[in-house]
């Protein structure tokens, strides 16, 4: 997959994508990542990429023409169409479903805003989709772009050492539930013991336990993600048992649920 990022700080994007899963994916040729600086396409001695907003107010607005020229150069550097995604708090919240959709594309372009944002006319003319990584404000879109690049790269074939790793992540798998707890050595520790079921070698029992923990944790921590009416009979039984254990002081201690299942 090829991802082109329009940013005033291409070195940040390159460095953030040089480690771990993303870095290895780039080394293996699974991800092509290119940064494009609008300042390189600005006119005049000062190569200005921003100016004051009409109507007054603080801050600066990124100008149309440097972005337009930069986008044209980026598009010409690769083959095939590529939707342009603008990272902005005004966009739709990023979900794993959206990540899967974008990861299936052969090519993608990301726009990182700065200052007070991008001239609305450029957004209306060129941006295909606006995405937010959360209800908060950052200094620019680079961190959001790095998040999106990481999430997309994980889903590329061969990016992870074990293909099952991505399938078992939170929001993946049946129902889009949170992930279950994980344990490693030692079995005995001052902070607790590895659950016996995980040491039993009974794969069916382990699968049931993990499914129950995913259901329970989603109900406790992100109840809005859980549609109990859509659960199978087996899942409802597992969730009921989880609630009974919790009421008896066994199981996930965080957080304490309300009567309606909210936190």
TrEMBL record:
Protein species of origin: Pseudoxanthomonas composti
Primary location: cytoplasm
Gene3D superfamilies linked: 3.40.1280.10, tRNA(m1g37)methyltransferase, domain 2
Domain tRNA methyltransferase TRMD/TRM10-type intervals: 1-227
UniProt-listed Pfam families: tRNA_m1G_MT
Molecular-function GO term, any one: tRNA (guanine(37)-N1)-methyltransferase activity
Keyword DNA repair tagged: no
Subunit structure as annotated in this protein's UniProt entry: Homodimer.
Record's GO cellular component terms: cytosol
Name of the protein this chain belongs to: tRNA (guanine-N(1)-)-methyltransferase
GO-annotated biological processes: tRNA N1-guanine methylation
Subcellular location(s) of the protein: Cytoplasm
